[in-house]
Specification:
By secondary structure, the chain is of the alpha+beta class. Helices cover about 30% and strands about 30% of the residues. Helix 5 packs antiparallel against helix 6. Pfam families: Beta-barrel_RND (PF25944), BSH_RND (PF25917), HH_MFP_RND (PF25876), RND-MFP_C (PF25967).
């Protein structure tokens, strides 16, 4: 039969008597009897007690305190021993606790997607219009009328500014009259020259006189030609007094208002920029070009994406259409140009922007949901679930973000299962019941495949391009040329473009 101890009950355990109240046998004899003995007996008893006290050893207060401390510790030990359960009771308690433990929580996990990616480089730029005209008058005159609405779209040949026409019209009329007079004089001079020739043939006029008349006719003919040229110029000035748009585009404000006198070729009336396309010039450092872009040609239509200041995405698609014929010796960079269709009103010349261009070479990468990546002090991590449902902490290096997906450039293999969201809610070594899910919207991955196809087609069109199948080339980590850092989002603009002279960084 096992040793069964009752549970600890403070009311059952009696405290040890206080040593301060304990009475020794010799002292108890000295107390008066309560039974009503006769006074003689009491007197004898007192004498015996006095004798015993004289002969018994006396206890000091220090000894009494030591005795009280020892008795108190002994009582505490007995109390604790009474509270401990027996062996049979302990086994039953453990079994009860085991039977009542909670099951492993159900946690959604997603498999890491493995696919090749390519480096993307970012550069800062300012947009330029392919065509830009500063409108100046070709004649001097007074502004009589502004024919355009500031900031509006204008067509080529549309009148914009009209000068006062009266002086130009008067000049034309004056020259027309002078030309008519000159032609009349020319006709008279020609007639006299002809008659002189006839008279000379009949010896009726001196030869010298005839030659003088012929010279006068020739001079009058030259005068008429001069008057005709002046009239043509006057008519041209009259036409130029009405200033028209030389190109189609968007007109700026009127720099001069009605009544101002403008000088030919000097005074600025307004400016016009083309609106159907915009250009973005940027410089790629020589090392990056030789390493990542050497296979690209200007006639491939290599894709370039553009992001305006204050925007989060690279929403505008363009193509590389110009590569300079030499490297700048001072900066060690190569000037290139990307052209974008300016169908959106936000694409205005002079706007600050950032462009990103894909490298021709590719590498393997791993993608997981962005919410699966947690932050631990200065490191990023994911929680990997093994086949037994145990979670393991894995430090990772992140790359670019594609929609709701994040590239993991180091620390994770494709096909591994990671906690789909909120890894900070769980801990390493925790047992879970994994539930495999597809993860967030995979439309961005489909878009990557389409972009991959276009990149592969353009690479195939270039002689000597690296061999890469359509499924092997997708956009990947983005390296900012201003800082050399690989960034994950398409947001955040750099201040100035300083170009890379190192391998693309990983963050």
């Amino acid at each position: 039969m096992s040793d069964q101890r009752p549970p600890c009950d403070p009311q059952v355990v009696s405290p040890a008597p206080s040593p301060a109240l304990a009475v020794s046998p010799s002292e108890s004899d000295d107390l008066p009897a309560r039974g009503g003995a006769d006074s003689a007996g009491r007197t004898g008893h007192r004498k015996a007690s006095r004798t015993a006290r004289r002969t018994a050893p006396r206890k000091t207060p220090r000894a009494i305190r030591r005795l009280a401390r020892g008795l108190g510790l002994a009582a505490l030990a007995l109390l604790l021993a009474a509270c401990q359960p027996g062996e049979g009771q302990g086994g039953q308690g453990d079994a009860a606790n085991g039977a009542g433990s909670a099951p492993a929580p159900r946690v959604e996990v997603v498999q890491a997607v493995r696919q090749p990616v390519s480096n993307w480089y970012r550069y800062t730029t300012r947009l330029e219009a392919p065509e830009r005209v500063t409108l100046r008058p070709r004649v001097t005159g007074q502004v009589a009328e502004i024919l355009f609405e500031e900031g509006s779209l204008v067509e080529q040949g549309q009148p914009l500014v009209r000068l006062d026409l009266a002086p130009f019209e008067a000049r034309v009329r004056e020259l027309e009259a002078g030309l008519a007079r000159g032609r009349a004089e020319l006709a008279r001079a020609n007639g006299e020259a002809n008659r002189a020739n006839q008279l000379v043939g009949r010896n009726l006029m001196a030869r010298e006189e005839a030659e003088a008349r012929r010279a006068s006719a020739q001079a009058q003919n030259a005068e008429v030609a001069s008057l005709q040229a002046q009239l043509d110029s006057a008519r041209l000035d009259l036409a130029h007094a009405e200033v028209s748009a030389p190109i189609s585009g968007r007109v700026s404000r009127a720099d001069l208002t009605v009544g101002n006198v403008v000088s030919a070729g000097q005074s600025v009336l307004t400016t016009i920029v083309s609106t159907d396309q915009v250009d973005a010039y940027f410089d790629i450092d020589e090392r990056s070009w030789n390493r990542d872009f050497a296979e690209i040609t200007a006639d491939q239509g290599w894709p370039v994406e553009l992001q305006l200041a204050g925007q989060d995405d690279f929403a505008y698609q363009g193509e590389l259409d110009f590569i300079d014929n030499r490297v700048d010796e001072a900066t060690g960079t190569l000037r290139v140009r990307a052209r974008f269709d300016a169908g959106h009103p936000s694409l205005r010349p002079g706007a600050f922007a950032r462009v990103q261009i894909a490298a021709a070479r590719h590498r393997d990468g791993v993608l997981v949901p962005d919410r699966a990546v947690g932050t631990d002090l200065d490191a990023n991590f994911v929680l990997v679930a093994d086949e037994q449902g145990k979670l393991a902490y894995r430090k990772v290096t992140t790359g670019a973000r594609f929609g709701a997906w994040r590239e993991i450039s180091e620390g994770l293999e494709g096909g591994e299962s990671v906690v789909a969201a909120g890894p900070s809610k769980f801990g390493p070594g925790m047992a879970i019941s994994p539930a495999l899910v597809d993860g967030p919207d995979r439309a961005p991955l489909e878009q990557l495949r389409e972009r991959t196809r276009r990149l592969a087609e353009r690479l195939d069109a270039a002689p000597g391009s690296p061999t890469a199948s359509v499924s092997e080339l997708v956009p990947g980590p983005v390296t900012d040329a201003a800082s050399g850092d690989t960034t994950g989002d398409a947001g955040t603009l750099a201040a100035d473009a300083k170009h890379l002279d190192q391998e693309p960084a990983r963050t």
